[in-house]
Description:
It comes from Mameliella alba. Keywords: Signal. InterPro entries: SH3-like_bac-type. With about 120 residues, the protein is α+β, with helices and mostly antiparallel strands. Helix content is about 15%, strand content about 35%. Strands 6-5-4-1-7 form a five-stranded antiparallel beta sheet, with no helix packed on it. A two-stranded antiparallel ribbon has the order 2-3. A hairpin with a 5-residue loop joins strand 4 and strand 5 (about 65-75). The termini are far apart.
Amino acid sequence: MKKLILSAIVAATAMTASAASATQAWIGNNHLNARSGPGVQYHKLGVFKPCTPVHVVKFTRDYYGNPTWYKVYFNHNYYWVKADYVQGHACHWTPKKQHWGHKKQHWGQKNHYYNY
C-alpha cells in the first residue's frame, strides 16, 4: 500500500512539474529572430518585436552550463531564440517615429516582422 501511495505522489509531482515548467520571460529591447531550431543554421520563421512576452519551455547549454538558446511558446507556437537577448522582467518599447522627407526612403521592401 505504501508503494502505491508513493508511486501516486511521485507521478502527481512529475505531472505538476512538467505543467508548470514554462517560465515567463520577455524579448529584450531589440528585434529578435525566431528560428525553427537552436542555432543560426535553422530557418528564420519571423522576428519578435522588442518586449514581447513569451514562455520559456526548454533551453540548450554551452560547455560551462550557461543557456545559449531558448525554446519559447508564443501565440500557440514554439520558436527558438538566442538566450542572450531574452530577459526575466517586463519592459516597454515604443517604435521610432518615421521622419518623412529627411531620409531616402526604400520603397518596395517587405516588412518581415510578425505582429506578435
